[in-house]
Amino acid sequence: MVRNLVYAVSRLPAGGHHAVCRSRQGGMTLADKFTLSEIYQKGEPGLRAAGYARTLPPDAASGTPLAANRAYLDSLFFTPRFLSAVKADCSSAILGTPVKVPVFCGPMGGWSNLGDTALVETCRGLKAAGAMMTLGIGGSDDVQKAVDTGVPVAKIVKPYRNTDLIFQKLEDAERRGCVAVGMDIDHFLGRLVGDTVDLDDTFAPQSEETMRQAIAHTKLPFIIKGVLGVDDARKAVDLGASAVVVSNHGKASLESATPAVVALPEVVGAVGHQVEVYVDTGFRTGSDIVKAFAMGAKAVGFANSILIAWGAGREEGVRQFVELLGAEMRRTMSALGCADCASLVDVKLQRIVT
Amino acid sequence: MVRNLVYAVSRLPAGGHHAVCRSRQGGMTLADKFTLSEIYQKGEPGLRAAGYARTLPPDAASGTPLAANRAYLDSLFFTPRFLSAVKADCSSAILGTPVKVPVFCGPMGGWSNLGDTALVETCRGLKAAGAMMTLGIGGSDDVQKAVDTGVPVAKIVKPYRNTDLIFQKLEDAERRGCVAVGMDIDHFLGRLVGDTVDLDDTFAPQSEETMRQAIAHTKLPFIIKGVLGVDDARKAVDLGASAVVVSNHGKASLESATPAVVALPEVVGAVGHQVEVYVDTGFRTGSDIVKAFAMGAKAVGFANSILIAWGAGREEGVRQFVELLGAEMRRTMSALGCADCASLVDVKLQRIVT
Amino acid sequence: MVRNLVYAVSRLPAGGHHAVCRSRQGGMTLADKFTLSEIYQKGEPGLRAAGYARTLPPDAASGTPLAANRAYLDSLFFTPRFLSAVKADCSSAILGTPVKVPVFCGPMGGWSNLGDTALVETCRGLKAAGAMMTLGIGGSDDVQKAVDTGVPVAKIVKPYRNTDLIFQKLEDAERRGCVAVGMDIDHFLGRLVGDTVDLDDTFAPQSEETMRQAIAHTKLPFIIKGVLGVDDARKAVDLGASAVVVSNHGKASLESATPAVVALPEVVGAVGHQVEVYVDTGFRTGSDIVKAFAMGAKAVGFANSILIAWGAGREEGVRQFVELLGAEMRRTMSALGCADCASLVDVKLQRIVT
Amino acid sequence: MVRNLVYAVSRLPAGGHHAVCRSRQGGMTLADKFTLSEIYQKGEPGLRAAGYARTLPPDAASGTPLAANRAYLDSLFFTPRFLSAVKADCSSAILGTPVKVPVFCGPMGGWSNLGDTALVETCRGLKAAGAMMTLGIGGSDDVQKAVDTGVPVAKIVKPYRNTDLIFQKLEDAERRGCVAVGMDIDHFLGRLVGDTVDLDDTFAPQSEETMRQAIAHTKLPFIIKGVLGVDDARKAVDLGASAVVVSNHGKASLESATPAVVALPEVVGAVGHQVEVYVDTGFRTGSDIVKAFAMGAKAVGFANSILIAWGAGREEGVRQFVELLGAEMRRTMSALGCADCASLVDVKLQRIVT
Q: Whole-model pTM?
């Protein structure tokens, strides 16, 4: 099954693969199959060609926790149990919504900068692969377009200084058929772009009362994103959240904040028995997802990686990317003797610093 | 509030920002706003153009503790509490003198090498931003010029072999209106420039008797700078000092001496209840200051960074630099749920080595 | 004895050594003697010239445990006891078969891609040096050719989805005179080539019943290769294996699996009193072998290194390579005061992370 | 006093310094004064110009403990006590022979390859600076030349397979006026040059009986060099040695042997109360010597560094090098509040891994 997804590069005539892609104006047909590393290598040029201008992490800004996060993840190892290999199924559910791969596309704005169809193509790719979409900043149009593709959509509302906007957007998301809503609390104080703080006049810290009202205001499950410690995790549960996302928000949250991978087991230990805990920040492979689940996560977010996958092959690139994540998850789970995602929490990770 | 200080580079026409600066002969108007990383990138050329010839750390000299100091600082992380975000105020006091940002410019000599106005421009920038100036080697003229700008000035006297000079300079500083005096004991044995010892014929270790007399000789609070361990910290308190600065003196103190960041919590633990403890060496950002306060510091010194800020924009560069430090401090404090500097001491730092 | 194996480079006319080799069309006479580092430097070009196209590890694929494995091995140090130096003998036995050097060539396929004689030349080199050959994927012809050289051969059968093939190949190996058989369980789920999974339609996880039958089916001792933890080790013993190989299968097993060097002492602790434990993955020198024995290994596998040695000098390159490993082993053992391989298990390794 | 030894580079006309040296055919007058880092930078070309062909460590051979040794040394920090600064005297004694700086030139052979006068120039430089000379492989002529300069000389005899040679050389050394003799036991098994073993037909492990006889054969104190652990240290004491040198013999001893800096405190703990313990391997500065003394060493050997110093300035280069080591020692000792070498053992080192 795994093999169907990949064309070993060595089986293609040298150079020909690239040439074919280019002759189709950067497009891609179903006949083109990639590996994860090929998607990572080829996607960014495609993304740039489509007009994407922001820096992709990791960047060189001093003090951001991204490098530590990735290095920490790379220092974690698991122990195969080949003689107990089982057929593995990586399907799961995110807040009750079934997913074939326990992955969501992180909430990003500015889809229209990538052309009229980028958002819809991404949603279709996610739907085909069985993952979830989340939306961040952006209007009702984006929500409608995304929902219309049939992919399950969660809308992560920004912490607007104008709290009316929050309630309007929550209502809008519910009305248009989102499966969940939420808020990224790590933008209470604006967004870091490099070391510039941006949008801090538009966003603002929300009072406990507002948060409680917002969560009560919707029938949908509410996700609090940007939790990096036990205090925020416990408060999120107390406020009525159904799930938390442990996240450094790419590099847009706070310099020198605990790396998400380090925070994850602490948050799971504190509230994992009460709410679903997800994680994002720097995850790139199916093995990475398995590590997150071993630390108690119930889903993993990919943001820049999915943009890159879209850059590599539009809808098809996104679909293949998520399916490759799933395939690698299943192979790893099989090797660990874990038949399903629930059993991954028993996998012991060993940290090796060299 | 933060946003007023910065122009996101991406909003400027490509290349235009630099061009404008250059067309003003390296000058700068109030309309030019920078981020911290822009100041760090642009300041050094400006400083060099003004004739600054010394090496800026870090340098390659073997065994200096600067690299370890910076790496240690970068390995410290804190845990945001966004759901407990508060409006933060980073104003404080240094030995009773109010500061808007708990920052002082480290004592440096040779201001006249940078032209007639560099010292005054720096002092004005510090005053505008609400920080403190300290002066090191240099004469009465420099003290007078600095005090005349209205910035609070502390004079850190050198440990002259000719002890009369020490007493004269203390008297002079007091007479001209400094708010504090002090001595950098890490120059008892001369100054390291690379691995050359310099000025060891001019400076000398001071006896306990001389130190005690010097401290008693002035009505001003006395700061002992260059403390790196518990012994010196306790002795400083016993001699009558009101504050100590934990410091590697840039790279000019002693090879393989404890990095200041490592020494800081030990010194605070020993004497933090008796005197104010400050720190310098390798600090660059507002997040760094927050870490220092979490370890018990009451102010942080910046020396080369302020020279660089001056290089980037003269008085305005210095003002913006300190205000950016303050803005980053406040944003970080808000995210940590700390309304004021005093509460930062309860922030727990987590060391992550990868 | 050591010295007979090596020509110090400095004793050769500058450049002449290389020139001579090249004038013989990449061939080599018995007069050419190399050091280990020369073999490593010169072998790869020779191997490439013979048509070898696959990547030699370490590669850049994210998450593979090879770099951690090598770094961990390099962080282990032993304490010489020169004043207790003894004459050392590194001969040993692998499953009862005597070896002059406790080394085996790891099971590799595709020998015919290197020409008609590569397999036989390698076997002859191993035989001359007193090591063991193992064969992986490949047919009866290869087994016969290898056995005919007189080198002891172990056949490591692949975990074919078609289990009949397994039994046929075990029988064939026994009939043709192999000294042992085995299976690499880390290919239950196909082979990793970079991040592509290959041959997963041909291989498959084997049931406990099949494994037990296969092991019972042959009179030869059975080696289970690809063990990386206590679970698989214990299960291997329970199934009737006579030996296990702790291995990451180069980089072809599983991303982020425990590095073999880290797993080795755990596996030895669990089953070392019941079966022989071998190790491979990233070993390069005689000192490395000594470390493996200090952790309880009874033999060490070299795969790519032996290909490289063949590239450096065909049969003679392989022979010299293994003899150099033995010579370095003996010198190290002498310095540690260990007369034989059995006593190496008392050597204490000290891990130093810098 | 320190300052007299150094000319800050910045005070010289740009480029002129180099030019002057070169115009004197690589020679040097007393007017040229260097810093340690200048000697390290400039010495190697001079050494090469004089015909020195061997690799200077660190080299790239895999597994040698030199890099770990240096990294470990660099991870050690001490805590200044400036307020307890004292005038420091770094003079000491090596086996009863007074030295102004507790440094010896490590035993090296092949002096005649550097010309007729290199050995004598080096000895004179050492004598002028108040350090000790040791000789390794080489004949009576070298011993006589060295002794005739007036420098104290210790002869470290090789562990000749022909034991008569050992006794002859011990007698010769005593007769010609050496102050001590010894043997480098880490050459029992030949010398590593890269990964080539050299001279293993000339040298051989010595029996306990031979060692005991050799030590008893001379009236001079006997130094056992190449100890890296407690076993050899205790045995050396039992055999009658007066001192041991903890050493990796540059890179010529044994791959993956405990780094000397790691072994030093263990050896001191075991036998430091019975014999003098010295150390070499990778030491470069006066601060490094202070660290060695803080770990209990009574002298530090420099080999390649002294060759480089000779390359930088012949006799004068060696003299300046050792005096700079002494000056840096004294400055560091003063800052640590240690008046003499004996008190350095109370200095606490802090290991900081970043």
A: 0.90
